[in-house]
Amino acid sequence: MKADSGNTAGFFKSKEGAGIVAMAATGLLIVMKLAGSAITGSISIRADAIHSIIDFSGAVIGFTGIKIASRPPDKGHAFGHGKAESIAGAIIGTFILAASLFIGYEAVSRLVSASPVNMVEAGIYITITAIAVNMLVSWYGLKIARDTDSIALEATSRDLLADSLSSVAVLVGLILVRLTGNNIFDSIVALLVSVVILRTALITVFKSLNSLMDNRLPPREEEIIRSVITGHQQTVSFHDLRTRKSGSERHIDLHLELPANLTVLQAHRVCDELEAKIQSKLPGSNIVIHIEPRQQKS
Asked: With contact defined as beta carbons under 8 Å apart, do 152 and 69 qualify?
């Protein structure tokens, strides 16, 4: 029984498990919001439902990217498949962008037609439930994304977070419709939702494209690498530090200058020590160190 509990806990702490939870939760939200839109005729709830449909598509794409990225290196992909996560993130961002434009169009159309909103109370209760589910799942997904350094899961979780924020706006709009009897608030909120979604889309796309373009590691992470190298007693100096990100993997290479009197075995041990320490601080790091002897002054 303890082994089963451990396996279950491990599943929910993995990025694959978090991806499945995100898909299941988003599927539930789609059903709830489509029902709410059909009952009330609210354009803001419909916009929220469309956002959730995009979320679900994004979760599926993100999960697929995670599964591909987790494959070990093979003959055709010697550096692994980490880029699959970045590609998935870019596709998800494009889906979110399309959703924001569609929702904006629907909101403007509803402003012109001034269609009524019915059974507002039902829409309010459905939206409150959707907010609770979305916030819980997005918080969980972002935590696992940080722990596993998954770009695809982070994109999916941020999409869910944006969905929950848009649901809050929908809730406010429905409450205003209920209090004032003016349906214009429903369309105004839908427009605001489209802007929120657009912002999320741009953040997701830009981050994914940076990874695809082999953007260097953040300054904080490069400083960790420098401190580890300079902190080793055998290090004379180093240069040509190059870093890049591939999904959740970090690729690091540098030229390390060591005392010329070290044997090959001793120099190899220094490199092993440096690699182990960097990997302990930056998990998922693949490190290549080029050894150079210290040049003797004449």
From this structure: yes
Give dist(CA 260, CA 84) in Å, integer: 42
Q: Which residues pair with 292 in a beta bridge?
A: 257
pLDDT in tens, 210-233: 767 667 888 899 999 999 998 888
CB atoms closer than 10 angstroms to residue 276: 11
pTM score, whole prediction: 0.54
Q: Return d(Cα 149, Cα 286) in angstroms, integer.
A: 15
| Best CA proximity match to 162, nearest among 184, 192, 188, 182 | 192
Residues 22, 157: contact at Cβ < 8 Å? yes
Tell whether the model's pLDDT for residue 262 goes beyond 90.
no
Q: What is the mean pLDDT of the chain?
A: 80
> Could you tell me the domains of the chain?
2-212 (1.20.1510.10), 219-293 (3.30.70.1350)
| Tokens linked to 227 | 């401190």
CA atoms of 297 and 188, how far apart (whole Å): 74
What's the CA gap between 153 and 140, in Å, rounded? 11
Q: Are 85 and 19 in contact (CB under 8 A)?
A: no
